[in-house]
Amino acid sequence: MMWTGKNAVITGGSSGLGLAIARAFARRGARVAIIGLEQHGVEQARSELEKHTEVLPLVADIRNEADVIRCRDAIHSAWGTVDVLVNAAGRSMRGAICDTTPEQFRELFELNVVALVQVTRALLPDLLATRGHVVNIGSLASKAAAKYLGAYPATKHAVAAFSQQLRLELGAKGLHVLLVCPGPIARTGPRLYPLEGEERVLEAARAPGGGVKVKAIDPDRLANKIVKACEKRLVELVVPGRARILFALAQLFPRIGDWLILRFTPH
Question: How many angstroms separate the CA atoms of 114 and 134, rounded?
Fold first, then answer.
């Protein structure tokens, strides 16, 4: 198996889609380092994953540069290098755009964008040396904004732009960059953290994906698609795939794009 003996690092790897991705790589023989914010969650994930592979559990706040460097050094001490980085840590929010404060924008950008950049930069020398993979978890909101998501679409648009710049500048040097743009992910339990701002929007917009009218995605199925996309070194994975039609129309005809988005999201 191509992942046997490879080393994968997953931020946000203790729950949700991040844990599913860690599980998918572990089952294919990769060693996995999971980075999570809470000790209990990281240890629970470790207990599950170590049935399949060697696990390096790391508790850290990736918004803090010192924590990121500590994680990098721990990975180097344990395994020497990194073959895959999955930037899965992040949060959503809710709120009318005119009610979303600059401080809320700043806070969400700090986690969804700046922390992602910080981790990527710390591990980039390894990934270039191994001709490895950077997987950035975006969203359908990376491609088209929707109502009542507060600062979230702006942060995910930034993730898409960062992914493209990495690809353009470092793809020729062997780095594979995959941007994943999924719709709402199915949950088997409560959110790890409260969804900020949900009490201030329409009830329909409090649902996963801001109430977008698409079927929730099974995280394990998506995780398997992500691993296969890495094997094929694809540059983008949009789920559901038919959303690409909307995005193409929105680029060519913005008014039609707005009309379609309004049809598929809460009014």
Answer: 15
